[in-house]
Amino acid sequence: MLEGRVVRSYSNVYYVDVGGEVLECRPRGRLRYQSERVLTGDRVRVSRAGPGLGAIDSVLPRKNMLERPPVANVDRVVVVFSFHEPELDLALLDRFLVLVSAAGLEAALCLNKLDLALADEAATLRELYAGLGYPLVATSARSGEGLQALRLVLAGRINVLAGPSGVGKSSLLNALNPELRLDTGRLGRKTGRGTHTTRHVSLVPVGDGGLVADTPGFTRLDLGRIKPTELAWHFPELAALTPECRFRGCLHRAEPDCRVKAALAAGEIDAGRYRRYLELLTEVEAAYRPY
User: Fold this and answer.
1) What HEC string does 249-280 produce?
2) Peptide bond before 290: cis, by omega within 30 degrees of 0?
3) Which contiguous run of DSSP H or E holds residue 98?
4) Domain region containing 25
5) Domain identity same for 124 and 249
6) What CA–CA distance (Å, rounded) separates 45 from 28?
7) pLDDT, one tens digit for every residue, the chain (291 residues)
8) Can you give 106-175 as a three-state secondary structure string?
9) Same domain, residue pair 148 and 200
10) Residues 16, 246: Cα–Cα separation, whole Å
11) Which of 9, 74, 186, 253 is 20 to 30 A from 231, comparing alpha carbons?
12) 230-244 burial by CB neighbour count: b if 16+ within 10 A, else e?
């Protein structure tokens, strides 16, 4: 019996790294009929079934799992956006960061296409988001700038790249590991958005022990599982002040003696982030489903 990690999957075929050798495996017996399927990133026990072949006998306990993309045992989600082409959408970026936090995962931020950034644009965003505690790197897959810093962020972890289409996730992975030759897409002429280029889930090595799941870009993210009273806890600057509010469960919108609103008036928190919090709060209140 061997132990290994599922590094990629196609339909009901799983490729398991058992320590330098990758076996093509299929689930054995009862695993094929369990409601919870084997996921990329799972630690599994396998037995050999022939040269280069194996059978998955059991899945070891997971520390976490994502539904979209379907990956298990994730250490960090690297939220990837571009400065331009497509234009940086801070509302969407904050939505990604909230959902990563709500999933109980650590987030880092990669801002790609640095070669297109305007003067001081990178410094302004770094001051805001790195100041909130998010590891932040600015990169250019085209010029190679910032790739070593990104490699350090990814080192020794199972990482998921998440972000809208067209921001350069596959291009970054190709730059980090030229042997991958992943397909990359161009922005659509009419929409200015990227086209989906990733068709399966796989963990790819990027050096220094880092593994990355390259995931399809998407722009519609469900907030329906977050309680309105919990949203502020996923904004680090609001979470730090919430315990000082007069009322428990303060939404930081119209309540009296709200520490967050006092901080906003004093210029202690970013007005744009607060405005985007209120926009998300309205959406969460409309979408929340208590189940």
Assistant:
1) CCCCCCCCCCHHHHHHHCCCCCHHHHHHHHHH
2) no
3) helix 90-102
4) 2-60
5) no
6) 11
7) 899 999 998 888 999 999 989 999 999 877 766 656 899 999 999 999 999 999 999 999 999 988 777 889 999 999 999 999 999 999 999 999 999 999 899 999 999 999 999 999 999 999 999 999 999 999 999 999 999 999 999 999 999 888 888 999 989 999 999 887 766 654 343 434 444 434 468 898 998 899 998 665 444 567 878 999 999 999 999 999 999 999 999 999 999 999 999 999 999 999 999 999 999 999 999 988 776
8) EEEEEEECHHHCCCCHHHHHHHHHHHHCCCEEECCCCCCCCHHHHHHHHCCCEEEEECCCCCCHHHHHHH
9) yes
10) 53
11) 74
12) ebbbbbbbbebbbee
Task: With respect to residue 221, please indicate whether it lies within any of the assigned structural domains.
Answer: no
Q: State the CATH number of the domain containing residue 239.
A: 1.10.40.50
**Which of 10, 37, 60 corresponds to the end of one domain?**
60
- 55: which residues sit within 8 A by CB, 6+ positions away? 25, 26, 27, 28, 46, 47, 49
Cis ω for the linkage preceding 69 (within 30 of 0): yes
Contact between 106 and 97 (Cβ < 8 Å): no
**Residue among 93, 84, 83 nearest 192 (CA):** 84
- Residue 148 sits at the vertex; the CA angle it makes with 177 and 89, to the nearest 5 degrees, is 90
